[in-house]
Amino acid sequence: MPTAAKPKLGPRRRPSQARARGTVEVLLTATARVLVRRGWAGTTTNHIAEAAGVSVGTLYEYFPGKDAMVHALVERHLARAEVELGAVIAEQASNLGALRLEPLARAMVDAMIGLHAEAPRLHRVLFEEVPHGPAVRRRVRALEERSASALAAALAVIPGVVVRDRVVAARLVVDMLEALTHRWVTDATQATLPPRRLADELVRMIVAYLGG
Fold it and tell me: Which class for 10: exposed (0-12), middle (13-18), buried (19 or more C-beta within 10 A)?
């Protein structure tokens, strides 16, 4: 994940009326389209305004620059990840006594693939090309740590788990899932497996590792 300088990342003003909120949505949708087509380095506010069908002046009424617009897209993705992975974590915590290894692995794999598969080309640009500051990096790390902690707690009560160190094993599984789903889902040159087949293979890997 590239490191960012310190541009102004907040919106210029918060839209309160429906029309203004609609304009922000149009601008962010256009930002996503242009990023996919031109990449981070090739995207300018002029390109975004043209794709959105508004003037550059209108764009600057809402955002100070492309950094802030792209940051808003990153924030949306992270918020969704926190909700969806948080739901998996909460289900684990509330159902520890009944958990089994393969269904748990399936739930984690499906959630991770879903996060990457919704807009894979955009995801790749946002997290490989766009430079990010410490706040985004801390947020990503915190999400990974929560997922690993929940998995380690589950491994303590699931029958048949044979790993030597649950904490280390949980962290390896979370990092492996993030790396492989990102590479295989967002990179068209690696996408030789359909998502369902990829999910099946990842579940098999996790079960074989954790269950011996």
Answer: exposed
User: Rounded to the nearest 5 degrees, what angle is found at the Cα of 119, between the Cα atoms of 145 and 101?
Assistant: 40
User: Residue ranges of the domains in the chain?
Assistant: 71-211
CATH class of 71-211: mainly alpha
pTM tops 0.90, yes or no: no
Mean pLDDT of 113-127: 91
**Which tokens sit at 27?**
């601008």
Question: What mean pLDDT comes out for the span 59-87?
Answer: 91
Kind and range of the H or E run holding 131: none
Two tokens at 2? 């590239």
Q: In this structure, are residues 199 and 185 in contact, taking their beta carbons and an 8 Å threshold?
A: no
Query: pLDDT digits over 76-96, tens only?
Result: 999 999 898 888 888 877 777
In the numeric block, which tokens belong to residue 53?
A: 């069908």
Query: Distance (Å, rounded) from C-alpha 189 to C-alpha 170?
Result: 29
